[in-house]
């Protein structure tokens, strides 16, 4: 059980980096710093969207319209931190169980 919680904790940590990379790449595309006509940029953009959009879309549906500001990645990162804290507390409560 402890090993499974450790793996989940690490996957959540990596997913935070994926969310941040997706947000930064979306800013770079919006400000025309990088161009989606480039095959490498387009493939990275599609990969990041495929990893983040299924999770971000329900959050966007719940949040109110804030104009052009999308705070759903921030909300998701806070939710992930909350889950990580729950996992950390569970790991500390039973350090040598199972």
List low-confidence stretches.
none
Q: How many E strands?
A: 0
Task: Provide the number of structural domains.
Answer: 1
Output the helix-strand order: HHH
How does the helix and strand content classify structurally? mainly alpha
Kindly state the percentage of residues in helix: over 70%
Coarse shape: elongated
The Rg value, from CA coordinates, equals: 17 Å
Tally of separate helices? 3
Overview of this protein structure:
The structure is a single chain. With 98 residues, the protein is mostly helical. It has one domain (2-93). The chain is built from 3 helices and no strands. The longest helix has 29 residues, at 2-30. The radius of gyration is 17 Å and the shape is elongated. The chain starts with a helix and ends in a 5-residue tail after the last helix.
